[in-house]
Structure formats: C-alpha cells, structure tokens
Amino acid sequence: MSAHVVFDQVVKRYDDTDILRDFSFAAEKGEKVVLIGASGSGKSTVLRILMTLEQIQDGEVYIDGEPLWHESGKPGKLASEAYLRHMRTKVGMVFQQFNLFPHMTALRNVIEAPIRVLKTPRKEAEERGQELLERVGLSARCDAFPAQLSGGQQQRVAIARALAMRPEIMLFDEPTSALDPEMVGEVQAVIRELAEESDLTMLIATHEMRFARDVADRICFLNKGQILEEGPPEEVLVNPQEERTQLFLRSLLEDSVSN
Amino acid sequence: MLFGIHWDTSGTTLDFALSILPILLIGLKVTIEATIFGFVLALVLGLVLAILRSSRFRIVSWMAWFVIEFLRDTPLLVQLFFLFYVLPLYGVSLPALVIGIIGLGAQYSAYCAEVYRGGIEAIDRGQWEAAHALDLSRIMTYKDIILPQAIPRVIPALGTYLVAMIKDAPLLSAITVLDMMAASTIIGDQTYNYLVPLSIVGALFFISTLVASFLVHKLDRALPKTGIPMK
Amino acid sequence: MSVYDIFRTLLNGLQITIELTVLSTILGALFSFVFGVGKISRIRIFRFFSTAYVEIFRGTSLIVQLFWLYYALPLLGVSFNSFVIGTFALALNIGAYGAEVVRGALQTVPKGQGEASLALGFSPWQRLVRVLLPQAVPEMMPTFINLAIQNLKDSAIVSLISLTDLTYYANNLQNLTYDTLRIYTVTLFMYFFLALLMSWGLGMLERYLRRWKLQAR
Predict the structure, then answer these.
(1) According to the model, what pLDDT value does residue C217 have?
(2) If we measure between CA atoms, which residue out of C194, C86, C188, C103 comes closest to residue C140?
C-alpha cells in the first residue's frame, strides 16, 4: 500500500445506527482531499476515526502502511494505548469549535504539546511557536488569552497549535462552520496557503464549495457512510455524475443564495 | 479556672461574660486549628478519591464510590467515636485533636471528591478532544488542561464545605478535645451558668463562618473563571 | 457478643433515631416553607425575621444550638424532654437550610407566572399555593433529599444530651463490652442503610411529584 492513509472496509456503528459501512478510502502522500456531504453523512466521523477519537467496529485503518487499531504483527489484538499514542503523533486535527485551552495564552497553547509530548526544550518550542503564529498572521497576539481573540483568530491559533506537533497528516473538521462570515475568509486563507506551500497530506471536511475547489486535489462526496462520488474538483463540483451529488450541491447553492 | 484563666462570677453577667471570653478564645484557636488541618486533609484525600473514582479499572472505581458514599452517609459523630476508640486497640495512640482532624478530613474528603468530580465533568468535551489530538497523555491532560480549569469553578462549592466544617468542628469536644465547646461546657458545669458561655460560643461561630465565607469569596474573585492562567 | 446480639441491642435506639429524623424533617420542611416564603415576602417584618432566622441557624453550629436550647428552654419555665428539644433543634437547623432552597426554587419560577396570576385576579395566597409552589416543589426535591439525609446524620448529636438514640446505645454498649470495632462498625452500617433507604424512598416521592407537575399542565 503506497497510499499515506487507507481506510479498508471500515464499519463504524453508534448505538444501532451504521455511520460508516464497508467504508474504503485512500489518500496519497501530500494529497489534499476534501470531504463533502450532508450532516450525518459520516465525513466528520472519518476524520475522528483517523484521529483515534472514535473506535471502529470492523475493518482497518492504515497510516503509512501500518495498521492503526491493531498492532502490526499482532493481528486480532487491539492496539495498546502506547501504540496508539505513537501513531497519533502523525496526525493533527483542527476542530470546528477550536477547543483552545482558555487558561493559556496563544503561545502557550501552541507550545504546550511540543514541550510535554515531544520533550522539546522550552526555548526552542517558543521560537518555533512564534514562527508558526507569525505564519498564521498572529505574531502580535502571542500573549493574548483566547477570550481576547476573535473566532477567526482563535481558529488560526488552533491551526498553529496542531502544526507545532509536526504531523504528517492534518485533519480539518469543518474549520469555518462556527465562525461569523467576516472571519471565514482569514481562516480559509491560512488553510489555502498551507495546502499550496506544504506537502502535508490534508483531509478537510467542509460545506464551503468555493473553498473546496480552491484547496482540493480531490473531492469525495459522502452519502450515508459511503463515498458516492469522487474526483478532481472540476469534475465533481461542476459536472457531478450522480444524481444525489447534484441534489446536494444544488441545495447548498440555494442555502447560500438565500443567506 | 480553665487554661490558667479565672472567671468572675461575682459581678454582673457582663463581667462574667468578659471574664470567660479569653478562655473561649483559646478554645476557638483549637477549633480553628482542627478546621484548617481537617480541611487541608479533606482537599487532598478528596482529590485522591476523585481520581480513583474515575479510574478505568472497574474495581478501583467501585471501591472508591463505596468509600465516598459510606463516608457521606454516616454521622460524623459516630465516625469520630469509631476512630477514637478503635485506633488505640491497634496500637495507634494519637492525641484526641489529631484523631478529630482525621475524622473531619475523612468525612469531608467524600464531599470534596464529589465536588471535584462535578467540576471535572463540567469541562467541555472539546478540551479533552483537543488534548487527545495533540497527543497529550492522560496525566498531562489532567495536570495542565483539566485541573487548572476545574479548580476555579469548584472554589465556591468547596468554600461552603469549609464553612460547614467549622460548624462540625465542635463535635470534637465529644472525643475529649478541649475546644471552644468543651470549654463552655466546663464553665457551665462549674458555674451553673450555661447560657452565657454558649451564647458567646454561638456568636464566635457566627463570626468565624462570616470570615470564612468572606475569604472564600475573595479567593473566588481572584481567580479567572476560565482557569488558572498559564503563560 | 455476636454481631447479631449487637444489632439487636442497637435496635432499641433505632426507633428513636427514626422517629426523631422523620419528625424533625417534616417539621423542618414546614419551617422551610414558612421562612423561605417569608424571606421574599413584601412585608418587611416577615422578611426581617425570616432572614434573621436563616442567618442565625445557618451561621452557627448545630451542636451549639442544641445545647443552647437544652439549657435555655427549661429556664423559660418550660421543661421539655430531650426528645422534644432534639426534634426542635434539628428542625430549626434543617429549616434554615431548607428555607434557602425554597427561596431559590421559588425564584426560578418564571416571573410571568406571578404576573399572569395577578392579572387573572388570584389573591397572593392563591398565587403562592396554586401557581408558584407547585412549580417550585419539584425543583427543591433533590436538595431536600440531601438535607433529609443530612438530618439523619445530625440526629446522632442528640446522644450528647442523653437522648437514647442509636448512637447513645452504641456508646453505652461500648462502655459495657469494649467490643469497639464491631459495635461502631455495625452502627455505621445501620446509619448507612437508613440513609440509602431514605434516599430511595424520597427519590420515589420526587418522581411522583414530577409526574404530578407534568399532569397539571
């Protein structure tokens, strides 16, 4: 398996409902994939499974050829916490609700994990933290607490925080859905820049179609826990083959027009 | 006389009251000592119990639950008697005040454990998820993310228990601790005037609880609600 | 003495403990309502006395209150027995805490309720009893249950004024046989089970009241 991320017939059940059924998916190294779909289609779940926030009932997920939920070489044995922690360092996530630590300054939010987990010396972590905050345009607000920052600024700090751990894969779970319209642009700009300049593998779940078109190498339309259609943005967004894809895109357009 | 101070039954009630005031104040000192040490013990033990309670091992968590419930639902007075009479049987001979402190600390640790648990559970799930995504271990998450946010939120609740403990402290007089309550009883036994000492003791308690509430209030205002700040 | 014998002896005190707890809780509930309502009354005198009552009995120690009443009441010429004094002291104490609960619960009832009843011509008394209290009562129950259990634990204090409750018998037994560990362990467990019983029973009452509140809508 040369792909960076592979989902192999994954089943995810919650109570009695199947959120993902025989879900298979692959992303190459450095590929930017955008997941679109209605709420409940499973796009957030895919990201959360990769981030080990959710467990799977069947199937397997592979990062760089190594299984995530079972230790390689020990089939049938569920992965230990130590193994998961090791795999987890390869993945970073930006949440819809930012989830910044409210009692820490922006800089501290960014350097906390590198210091504690990667054991980076404080000075080095601070330098890199400043760099990252500058990259997302917030070098002047290093010492601000989240309560003093706008939503857009908080989300940008969250992006810097995730990047500080040097992940191979970056996940964005509806990064702008909780933002007021004026601030959506600044966050999207940061993500777009990241997509253009870095060779990170990025998986983004979003409703914003224009943003998806700008950022994606490939778009996957999810419906009821399955990939209904996928391909380059020009194909899926402009010329969708499946009827349900067409319906979904049309409904989004109507929403944005009426807004 | 008591504590080396004589009282004056010859004059008016006011003279009597003033003469026993120093005696009762010495007793107050004992009461406050017991409360402070007992509360510190309760805070620490309560944290231990709360952590055990949220352990991933069912047995540990259940045992912690049982200890908490048992301490919470049984009278402090009986717990004190238990400790006072049972400990010496096992060769542990401690001064009555220490036994009293242990008793107070034990019962209130159960209350504190519940308060901690409530505070921790009130923290938004997103914080746990963000820490998880950043690969922080459980211990690190508790230490740097969860506890600094939980502690300021629980201070008011813990404060009410501090005040409650002040009012429970006189129970120690039942296990021969020479506190404010015991002093007033001794004075009463010897002068046949119980009401004056008891009234003074009542007033002293009232003042103590007011002061304690005030201090808790100040502490509450001093810490930001978002959590203990970390730079 | 076997554990069973210990238990049988302690049963003598159990009756007093139960009677004491039940009576003082009911009486305390009554005080709670009277003074809880009084604290937010528009009549200043009521407010003053209610606030004074709550502050005094919440701000001072129960054991001090108990002893004070024990020595004070006979001086007033009324020679009560220990049981009545104990019940009264416990009731006054729990009543003060309960009053705050009643007050708080009444204040969570939406203002519109009071205004609507006024507009409909209800008298203040009717407004209180027919509109506000029924809505407030289910809110109070969880805390009341805690207070009731607290009362059960506090009842042990009456042993200090020689009232022959469970704790008194335990102490007596310990003086006679020195079988300390088992005596007090049995005593603690008896209180524990009483508390669980109370918690369960009052929980059923709470559920009944909630259903009643929903039906009335």
Answers:
(1) 38
(2) C103
Three-state DSSP state, A66: strand
3-state secondary structure (DSSP) of residue A13: strand
CA angle C143, C145, C147 (to 5 degrees): 70
What per-residue confidence (pLDDT) applies to C11? 87
Shortest Cα–Cα distance, B25 to chain C (Å): 16
C64 Cβ under 8 Å from any chain B Cβ: yes
* Residue A180: Cβ within 10 Å count: 10
CA-wise closest residue to B202 among C36, C89, C80: C89
Chain C residues with beta carbon closer than 8 angstroms to that of B179: none
**Strand runs (DSSP E) across chain A, as ranges?**
5-14, 17-27, 32-37, 58-63, 66-67, 91-94, 169-173, 201-205, 218-223, 226-231
Low-confidence ranges of chain B (pLDDT < 70): none
- CATH class of the domain comprising B13-222: mainly alpha
Encode burial over B22-48: b for 16+ CB neighbours within 10 A, e otherwise: ebbebbbebbbebbebbbebbbebbee
| Angstrom distance (rounded) from CA C66 to CA C90 | 8
Measure CA of the first residue to CA of the last residue in chain B; give whole Å. Answer: 57
pLDDT of residue B156: 85
Based on its alpha-carbon atoms, the radius of gyration of chain C, rounded to whole angstroms, reads 20
Q: Which residue from B minimizes the CA distance to C65?
A: B202
Q: Are B191 and B6 in contact (CB under 8 A)?
A: no
The whole model's pTM is what?
A: 0.76
- For residue B100, the chain C residues in CB contact (below 8 A) are none
Sign of CA dihedral A13, A17, A22, A27: negative
Query: Do B148 and B230 meet the contact criterion of CB atoms below 8 Å apart?
Result: yes
Pairing of strands A91-94, A66-67: unpaired
What pLDDT does A102 receive?
84
DSSP B5-27: B----SS-HHHHHHHHHHHHHHH
C51-67: per-residue pLDDT in tens?
Answer: 999 988 988 889 999 99
Domain limits, chain B: 13-222
Three-class SS of residue C81? coil
Closest CA relative to residue A114, chosen from A154, A78, A182, A165: A165
* Residue B99 near residue B83, CB atoms below 8 Å: yes
> What does A123-152 look like in DSSP terms, one character per residue?
HHHHHHHHHHHHHTT-GGGTT--GGGS-HH
Which residues from chain A sit within 8 angstroms of residue B230, using beta carbons? 103-105, 108
Q: CB-based contact (8 Å) between B185 and chain C?
A: yes
Decide if B121 contacts B154 (C-beta within 8 A): no
C214 pLDDT band (50/70/90 cuts)?
A: low
- Across the interface, whether the CB atoms of B130 and A105 are under 8 A apart is answered no
Q: Least CB-CB distance to C191: which of B73, B86, B202? A: B73
Tokens 């001794």 correspond to what residue?
B186
Q: Report whether C167 contacts C156 (CB < 8 A).
A: yes
Distance CA C151, CA C98 (A): 11
